[in-house]
Amino acid sequence: MDNKTIVENISRELNLKKDDVRKLMTTFCSLLADSCINGDVFVAPGFGQFEPRKKSERLATHPSSGKRLLIPPKLTIYFKPSAILKSRIQK
Amino acid sequence: MGNKLTFSQFAQLMSGKCNIDIKVCEAFLKTLFRNITGGLDNDEIVKIKDFGTFKVTSVASRKSVDVNTGEDNEIPAHRKVVFVPAKELAIAVNRPFEMFETLEISDDLSESEIMEAISSGDMEPAGDLKGEENMEPEKVEDQPQQEQKIVADATESVEDVTQIQENDIETESDGNAGTETLGTEEPLTDELMTEDNVAEDTLTDDIKPVRGFKHGFIWGIVAAFLIMLIGAGVVYYLYRESITEIVAHNKGVKGNVANEKIAIGDMIDEGEAAEDINTGEPTIVENEGGTSGEGANAVPTKPSDTAPVYDTITDTRYLTTMAKDHYGNYHLWPYIYEENSKMLGHPNRIKPGTRIVIPDLQKYGVDPKNPADIEKAKKMGGEIYSRYR
Question: Which of chain A's residues have a Cβ under 8 Å away from the Cβ of B56?
């Protein structure tokens, strides 16, 4: 399922304009990023939760040039699926 | 921090940001995730612009060991959901750490050395630095005015004292005229010795300000005292020169006096350059002047006289990287630090843009290739950090 289908589905179900749905989507993404920076966890009941995780710095070797690199620390967003979603996709 | 945001809380935030009714926002969130779940059921992949991709992947069965019983067991094949955030979202989440860049590491460093360098705090985010630094410069600006007043008073009193001393010496030289040269030499050397002590005092005083930097008042007093001593040294030098000339004229022993003048000149230099911790012992210079009359001109030049090398601290250039560039080893940074200790605070909190002198390692008698010297440098590093605990 791609972005276009999702937007169409939501606009049909909620009787909203597609532009409004897109606007809501952009707001949702920026707020999700903000909540992650604040260290908050966003919980979608029955679906899962989005939480921030810190990846610490590490040493790596460039696969083609063979140079050693120091990869800096990084904040990422991690999705933890709920038990309901996990069991649902087993079918 | 660490809060759990539910749909209703998040909908409130959303409606506040885009002026859409809370109920609509909440309904939107519910519909969105219901659609994602439905999409995963049907297509096993859902791509959403600016958000990311949800994907169902298969995991093959694998053998494992029960942590509690130690028995072998097999994890059956299953399917799992993977979420890959879109680039836009990933960048937005990583905003607090966006200033870090991937560094290329030269081959001659071992892994432990690098990890040590990292743990010593060089990778600290710049945000940490600003808080403490902003407070310090204000204190520094206040002090010079105070000092100038004190120094002005001090130099006046010192002038009085030197005039008295001058008279004393003149009468003494009159008494001894033409009989022996040692008589005049003695008071001079005594005074040289006192100046020697002064130089030493200033050296020890000089280390303290770095430690007690935050105690602005104490620092101010110590610094004022220091400048007073330097001022005294300068005034003393000016008068001393004229005295020695008179003495020399009276006795016609120009050679000795010339030597002494050079020796004194060097002493004063020591006084003025009191911040230089490892300058040569003044007494040695004096001895050389005394033993070889004409060889006095060949007074050894101090290491600081050779053209100094400068470098500037930046967000990505630290003392360690400078040590690596100039000496070939990260661990030798304490020597750079000590050379500039007067103007540096905590070694990990140096303000970017600070211009520092890179000393010649020969000055400290250090060989970058000698493992014993590297060990010594490591100990020095520990000692520097211990000052700020």
Answer: 89
Collapse the DSSP code of B329 into the 3-class scheme (helix H, G, I; strand E, B; otherwise coil) and give the result: coil
Highest mean pLDDT among B47-56, B92-101, B317-326, B377-386: B47-56
**Letter string b/e over residues B371-381, b meaning 16 or more CB atoms within 10 A of that residue's CB:** eebbebbbebb
The ipTM of this complex is 0.90
Cβ–Cβ gap B24/A67 under 8 Å: no
Taking the CA of residue B5 and the nearest CA in chain A, the distance in Å comes to: 5
Residue A54: both structure tokens together: 């810190």
Q: Within 10 A of B310 (CB to CB), how many other CB atoms are there?
A: 9
Other CB atoms within 10 Å distance of the CB of residue B190: 10
Q: Do the chains contact at B102 and A72, CB–CB below 8 Å?
A: yes
Residue of A nearest to B81 (CA): A81
Q: Verify whether the Cβ–Cβ distance B49 to A10 is below 8 Å.
A: no
Task: Name the least confident of A58-62, B1-5, B94-98, B138-142.
Answer: B138-142
Cβ(B297)–Cβ(B288) below 8 Å? no
